[in-house]
């Protein structure tokens, strides 16, 4: 019993140390990002949007010319063909002032978007501050793209050894397999089987397991505020849209005759078809839209709340507010560890539910 109690205390201490590390490192990163001249006013919106948005480099510390960052490759298809170089050639400029010339093409970066420079090597803005310059095709490896590749590699490094272990030990879980088996069984027995049905759930298990662990890993990566992590991939609406479209395609291509009949020939008087058919089609569109917005909004909101709490120190310009900010940041960081798993579960659950509604036979429904 004493050994068990010591083990629990040690585990709790490790967990608390991890949360404290995240909180204090987040504060250190934010304070480094807000260094500026004494006359410049602190802008929390700029700080938050900078950390939430995608970027062509991993910012480590400092600000402006004194900042330290890890550049990522710029890959562009321009009027003169393929152009590649490192983002460090922009010299940390994100306001469209530093021009990079490659293969006879002049380029500049403005708010992490790359544009052609005009004949004067400048960026033209309209009355609302939107760039008027044309843009090349951008295939660069940004923070989010790097994070996507990293999470895919982590999935392979986790599940290939697990599969090999099962094969080698004739289905008996050992080591890492013993840790992963309850998670896989949970997705199977609590998500796929009850929502899709006993006869058809196995067909969709590969997608549901991939979505669950892929989202969970990327949610956790976004909570670690240093390289090679810190990218807000699941808080990027383009990424959540792509995941939602995968679910939509699988759902609609798996739809049975009963599913499509319910949409185009609902069980109502024929004179109501003009109302019900558009409503059902809107439902087909709104399901992936709900998946997209739910994941994007919840993950982004967590990052914004943490950065807003840190910004209070610089808004009030007093160290007295720091203990309050630190306490709430640690609390929110702890909550975010739960949210990381919860949002992966919800996305997978709703995907299984939508697929189950599409593959359900009419007689099974009754």
Main attributes of the structure:
366 residues, mainly alpha, 2 domains, 3-stranded antiparallel beta sheet, 10 helices, 8 strands, 60% helix, disordered N terminus
Derived from helix and strand composition plus strand pairing, the structural class reads mainly alpha
Low-confidence stretches: 1-7, 12-39
Across the major sheet, the strand order is 4-3-8
Distance linking N and C termini: 54 Å
The chain-level mean pLDDT equals 84
Rounded Rg: 25 Å
Q: How would you sum up the global shape?
A: globular
Task: Please provide a brief summary of the model.
The chain has 366 residues and is mainly alpha-helical. The chain contains 10 helices and 8 strands.
Task: Explain how this protein is built.
With 366 residues, the chain is mainly α. It folds into two domains: 44-140, no CATH class; 144-365, no CATH class. The protein is built from ten helices and eight strands. It has a three-stranded antiparallel β-sheet with strand order 4-3-8, with no helix packed on it. Helix 5 (201-221) runs antiparallel to helix 9. The termini are far apart. The model is unreliable at 1-7 and 12-39 (pLDDT under 50).
Please describe the topology of this protein.
Blueprint: H1 2-33, H2 44-52, E1 57-61, E2 68-71, E3 73-78, E4 81-86, E5 100-102, E6 105-110, E7 113-116, E8 137-138, H3 143-168, H4 176-196, H5 201-221, H6 237-253, H7 257-264, H8 273-316, H9 322-359, H10 362-365
Antiparallel strand pairs: 1-2, 3-4, 3-8, 5-6, 6-7
